[in-house]
Sequence to fold (638 residues):
Amino acid sequence: MSRSSFSHARSLSRVTSRRGLRLESLEARVLLAAAVLDAGNVESETQYSALGKFGGKFKKLRGQDAGNNITGATSLGTLSGTVVINETVGGANDPSDVFRFDVAKESDVTLKLSNMKRDLNLKLMDEAGVTLATSAKKKNSTETIVMRLPAGAYFVEVMPATNQNSSYRLQIDVVAVPDSGSGSDPGTGDGGDTGGTDPSGPSTSGPPLAEVPTYGGSNDWNLNMIGAPESWAVGFEGAGVIVAVVDSGVDLSHTDLQANLWVNAKEVAGNGKDDDGNGFIDDVQGWDFVDRDNSPTDANGHGTHVAGTIGAVKNGAGATGVAYASTIMPIRVLDSTGSGWTTDVAAGIRYAVDNGARVVNLSIGGGYDSSIESAIQYAWSKNVFVAAAAGNDSASLPTYPARHSATLANLISVGAHNSSSSRPSWSNLVGTSGAVQVDAPGVSVYSTTRGGGYGTKSGTSMATPHVAGLAALTLSAAPNLTAAWVRDLIVAGAKRVISGSDSVGGIDARYTVAWAAQWAAGGGTSSGSSFNGGSGGGDSGSGGGSTGQSVSLASATTSIVVGTATSVAPTSTSFSTEQVSSRSMLTDPQEDEAFSIAMQSDDELDRIAMELAEAVQKENTSDRLFAVAGLVEELLLA
Fold:
């Protein structure tokens, strides 16, 4: 194994144990908190990364190569959490890199091999050298293996498909399987949630809302596909529902957002006092947990795009939100690079809950973190619904915190689909995680951008606010719904079939909102309703989603069962030329380097476009040019 360097990093003045989190957007994907190392004898120091913040250790190689076989494998020790290795392999003297790691108890293990310049393959073996799983995609595609492993020793092998050498990044995530009972009801608390098992909960029988003429133009395909205009037509536009955007902040002066931004009426602006006694001084428009101040202004652009999808005003210009009459609570937990600390995310969730949010949008993802899980449990105890991005890793399981939807009844995982109702290959599957997952538009979604502009972005980050917006529409129709009932209605109404997806299906406001209104019109019971949503249209209720999950209103707790390796081949994704722009209309320093590609229905082109969106954001000019040039060459060959 050749010596490699970790570029664009500089030392922190102090060590911190807080773990980093990332955006789930193809335009701004950053790394998880991790122990970043080069194999061999080590000297440790804490680092910043240009791609994200790391709460672990950066370990520097001291002239000792890793072994090329099991006998001479480099030992990583007993792992818990995340470790990242940046290395080089290939050539006559370095035919493969082999690493040994141990797990102390049954764990969910994810191996991810990326950032290769050449074609590399990935293999997982047990202590005896028996192959458990392999990943060998074409060219320099990201390789991923996901398995639940019992306690024991294991080996990971990175090997070139040819004799050519290549640098790479190997990430190993080890998450211990929670003890049974960890996902139980956290208690009712104030306005506590019953988990959706109360017999007085809403029924999912009855007609959908009547179809209405197509709204807007080509940029509004997403709104029409999920049936948002049908909800608006019967007066349910999200009014009175506060949706917290826990993200990179929001452009507080954007003309399409200003009218719908949350204002803390109990706080007196600028007097330097905590008037409402919530622990935050002058938090009139939310809170910035990054800079620790009362100005949650977006310095990245991700949160502004998310906020617009939820609640941009309907004014005949720019973008329109799913719930355009809802109220957006800006909470900044991610910095200008799109990275942040899990403790800040957890604090942001709790702030949202304590200050009146009924819905929380989490277009973020990463490894398991107990503080975030606890914060979502707290939201459950206070009857707050949470939507979380499934992730853009081409993986057979959703990322955290979305994966907690298997055990937390107020949480839903969200995958992406395009305008042809197909899952893009990068949108994570449900697999054997037990996650409760639906799909929503997430490819070339048009929304607000930082600096007062508009543009398209892709990713499960862009899909998630559609579900948060639908939750707001649902609660505007039936404010007394519990968080679990909101999820149940969204899941039961996800009747659109999404090609290549194993989620329940694509969300549909025509059903979800109709059933919520029916329940509310009946006095909050499942019978005796007088609400009439019209003659209905489209799907009559047969069919439903793809193949992954059964729909049940009693979906409060589901045990997590994670199983086999990620051998699921991604289904080809259909893209149309109007969907593929990763460039927004405003002049963001990073987005100025992005570009548009007209794509055919081809999975390889899908991957190249995703990696191009990442490559153009590399901080070092030479690294950026090298990465883009290689991918453009691949594009021409493809």
